[in-house]
Design a protein that fits this description.
single chain; alpha+beta; Nucleotidyltransferase, domain 5; Dna Ligase, domain 1; 3 domains; 28% strand; globular
Length: 417
């Protein structure tokens, strides 16, 4: 019997490296069969700062996912992010190769290749060339011109570039961990594959991916990605504020944030008390939950206000009917969505990965949106159509051999990242 097709995604973040292995099941559905997570200490704000530590974390994450899935993987779609990511618009026009005939995929490739040929510095690499819309002769606003008749084909595209050095370092780490890189994928673009509905992409939406070191601000509109920007603050800054403000180790501050943090201080129970471990053997102290919440709220509000300014400077924000989708580790903070809604003054929802089976409730959260999105992206790139998980699939997926293992494993580790 032929082996099933496997798709692997590796999310290389500041706080964690997450590997997701999915298989193409019967009927063309994509099902997660293995997940591995390892703390990341070799990456800062999306850039590799310690090669050996990053390699070891990738290897550990991949090994964990392989053990859970009971398979060996050799290649992966790998996420890339950070302040070095830039986006630019470009347009190109070509003459259709056979004026009396239909526009072909070859014509489409030619116009996209020409649109890609903008002046890019030698230290930059093109990561994506994403079509926004096409025009055939005088007819504009065309999503797919293949099969239409015309003489002149014009394309508007959005080009995503990355630092060549940063991109190569990511590739080097993955390859030295024993995995071939199929493609580098912008992490927020991959997350959009797992989080966004088609009508959100069409009406316009801001995707906020609040990671450990940075917050990515990505705008989708008209069915395409239209803007990408980065705020140089993330969940690690909240953790650092807690550690400094409460004089506790960073690891304990992270635990306090996860277990007792509120992005809106008024949501914290007024009579709650929290034990705070001391530094260097000093005695523990007891504080009010309101004190911790005020620290978390202050920094979270700053991050969201900076993200709003990043999105607002595009001039598009007043025309985005889909509101805001919030993902990343910070999205798990209680009150984070409500705070973001107050800052952006538009509806906000917490992003939940979709488009795959085999996920239980613990994995189906913002922390794993990028890794899941990478597998969906790879699935679509390799010519399959993602089958969204309906009621029948959900019932079947619970009986998948990897489902029980995923559930029990994540009960032990999910709260530590």
């Amino acid at each position: 019997m032929a082996s099933k097709k496997l798709i692997t995604g590796i999310d290389i973040g500041t706080t964690k490296i997450c590997t997701v292995i999915a298989e193409v099941g019967e009927g063309g559905a994509l099902e997660v069969v293995g997940v591995g997570v390892c703390r990341s200490s070799g990456v800062k704000r999306g850039a590799v700062v310690n090669i050996e530590k990053t390699i070891e974390a990738i290897r550990t994450s991949v090994d964990e996912a392989q053990k859970m899935a009971g398979v060996k993987v050799h290649d992966a779609y790998v996420g890339i992010a950070g302040s070095h990511i830039q986006g630019a618009n470009s347009r190109a026009v070509i003459a259709v190769s056979r004026a009396q005939d239909e526009i072909t995929h070859g014509d489409l490739d030619r116009v996209l290749e020409q649109a890609k040929a903008i002046s890019i510095p030698a230290d930059r690499r093109v990561v994506h060339v994403l079509p926004v819309e096409f025009a055939v002769d005088d007819q504009e606003g065309i999503a797919d011109p293949v099969g239409m008749s015309g003489i002149r084909l014009e394309a508007e595209v959005f080009i995503v570039t990355a630092s060549e050095t940063s991109a190569r370092n990511v590739e080097k780490c993955v390859e030295r961990a024993g995995i071939e890189v199929n493609e580098l994928v912008l992490e927020s673009y991959a997350a959009g594959h797992a989080l966004l509905e088609e009508d959100e992409r069409e009406l316009g939406v801001v995707l906020l991916d609040c990671g450990g070191g940075t917050t990515d601000v990505t705008i989708f509109a008209g069915g395409s990605m239209r803007y990408v920007g980065t705020v140089g603050l993330g969940g690690d800054n909240i953790t650092s504020d807690i550690a400094i403000g409460l004089r506790t180790p960073l690891t304990e501050a992270e635990t306090l944030k996860r277990r007792h943090g509120y992005a809106i201080s008024s949501l914290a129970p007024p009579d709650s008390s929290i034990d705070v471990p001391g530094i260097g053997g000093r005695a523990d102290r007891e504080i009010s939950g309101q004190v911790l919440a005020s620290i978390v709220e202050s920094r979270t509000a700053e991050i969201m206000e900076m993200a709003y300014r990043e999105a607002a400077q595009t001039g598009m924000i007043d025309y985005l009917g889909g509101g805001v989708v919030l993902t990343g580790g910070t999205a798990d903070l209680q009150g984070a969505a409500e705070l973001t809604e107050a800052v952006f003054e538009m509806p906000v929802k917490r992003g939940v990965p979709r488009g795959t089976g085999g996920l239980n409730d613990e994995v189906r959260g913002p922390r794993f949106a990028t890794a899941v999105g990478l597998t969906i992206y790879g699935f679509e790139r390799e010519g399959s159509n993602v089958v969204r998980m309906g009621a029948a699939n959900r019932h079947r997926n619970k009986n998948h051999p990897g489902f029980e293992k995923i559930g029990s494993w994540f009960k032990n580790v999910v709260n530590s990242f």
